[in-house]
Design brief:
Strand content: 15-25%
Largest sheet: 4 strands, mixed
Number of domains: 1
Radius of gyration: 19 Å
Order of helices and strands: EEHEHEHHEHEE
Mean pLDDT: 91
Number of helices: 5
Distance between the termini: 41 Å
Low-confidence stretches: none
Helix content: 25-40%
Strand order of the largest sheet: 3-4-7-6
Number of strands: 7
Length: about 210
C-alpha cells in the first residue's frame, strides 16, 4: 500500500525524530497501491520490476516481460531466438490461467521469439531464484521506509544493488488491467502451444504465429 504506513525493518534516524506512520493499514483511496512484478535474469544477474497501479493480472505479467525484453533483454541477448521463463504455479502467471497463455502468445507474436515456460510445482515457489537473489534485496533496501508515493517505490527498487553485482531497473506501469476477462475455447485453441512430454501442464512452449 502506498502512503505513510508502517514498513517492517529498522533504519537509523536522529534520536527523538522517528518517522510517524498511521496506526491502521487501510488502502488510501487517493494514493492506491503499488504492484511489483519482477523479471530476474539469472545469467546477467540483473532484474526488471514493473510497478503496476491497477490489478495483478496475466496481461500485466506479460507486459512486464515485454518491457524487460525491450529495455534490457534484447540488448544483452540480441541473437536470442527463444526465452525460457521459470514461473510460479499460481498467481497471475499460473499454469491454469488461460489468459496467461493468450497474453504470452501476443507477446511471442510481438517480439518474434519462442517462449518456453517451466512452472515450479505447486507449493515450491520459494525455490524460484527471483525470491532469493532479487526480491529479498529489494525488501532489505526499503526496510523501515514508509512507501509514501509511487516515485518512492520505483526509486527504492531501482536503486537496489548488491556487492555481487545485482542491478535492477524499475518503471511505473500506469496501464489499466481489468479483471474477470474470460478466454473462449476458440481463443485458447489459437495459441500455438507445444507441451512437453513431462508434465505438459507445467512445461510448454508458445511459438509466434507470424
Amino acid at each position: 500500500m502506498i502512503g505513510d504506513f508502517k514498513n517492517a525493518g529498522r533504519e537509523w534516524h536522529p534520536q527523538g525524530q522517528p518517522v510517524k506512520v498511521r496506526s491502521q493499514d487501510f488502502v488510501d483511496q487517493h494514493l492506491g497501491k503499488g504492484i511489483p512484478y519482477g523479471v530476474y535474469d539469472i545469467t546477467a544477474n540483473n532484474g526488471w520490476v514493473s510497478v503496476g497501479i491497477d490489478h495483478d493480472t496475466a496481461q500485466f505479467a506479460a507486459e512486464s516481460l515485454r518491457r524487460w525484453w525491450q529495455q534490457m533483454g534484447s540488448r544483452v541477448y540480441p541473437k536470442a531466438k527463444e526465452l525460457l521463463v521459470m514461473a510460479d504455479a499460481g498467481g497471475s502467471n499460473g499454469y491454469r490461467i488461460r489468459l496467461w497463455k493468450v497474453a504470452l502468445q501476443e507477446l511471442a507474436d510481438a517480439i518474434g521469439l519462442r517462449i518456453s515456460v517451466c512452472h515450479f510445482p505447486p507449493g515450491t515457489s520459494k525455490w524460484n531464484k527471483i525470491e532469493h537473489r532479487m526480491f529479498c534485496h529489494i525488501t532489505e533496501n526499503w526496510r523501515g521506509k514508509p512507501l509514501v508515493s509511487r516515485a518512492v517505490i520505483v526509486n527504492l527498487i531501482g536503486n537496489t544493488k548488491t556487492r555481487t553485482g545485482l542491478t535492477i531497473n524499475a518503471e511505473l506501469d500506469e496501464n489499466a488491467y481489468p479483471t474477470g476477462i474470460k478466454v473462449s475455447e476458440a481463443e485458447l485453441a489459437a495459441v500455438r502451444i507445444k507441451r512437453a512430454k513431462f508434465h505438459g501442464d507445467w512445461n510448454y512452449t508458445i511459438s509466434p504465429r507470424v
